[in-house]
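FIELD: query
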Amino acid sequence: MTKTLAGVFRAADQAREALHDLRWEEGLGPEEISLVARRPERPPGASAEAREAAVGQEEIGYADGTLNGTLAGAFGGLVTSMGAVAVPGVGAVLAAGPITAAVAGAVSGGIAGGLVDLGLPDQRARHYERRVKEGNVLVIVRSQEDRLLRAAQILRRHGAFDVEIQ
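FIELD: result
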């Protein structure tokens, strides 16, 4: 039976390492893995270069419309499906994988609406939306339950919290 796993990371480098292991240890494909993160704000009046320096190498960002940062390499083939979406009450977020269309299509429902579309209960979806709003990185995996049990171990091993399967 297909279920949904969600986990939250405080740092992009933790998420990057977990995504790598989900792909190469567990063999999960790009169609099974999604990511949502709040897009860092550019300091007022700062150039793209200055903002990147302020954000640092371990964060996610855009410079002149081009995705950069540590998560780009982790997603490999998913980079082309990664995009920025303006979410009411949250701001600009970066989304990759199947959730990209769900979040873009559920703008009025925000991130929570997209997560509900992926199988999370409304209350948990709102919880995860708050986590993204706080600046955390959310990783979602949609697959068979036995694979999700192993995937949850991978997320925890790399520092994820609020890890659960629905």
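FIELD: remark
Residues 2-165 form one domain.
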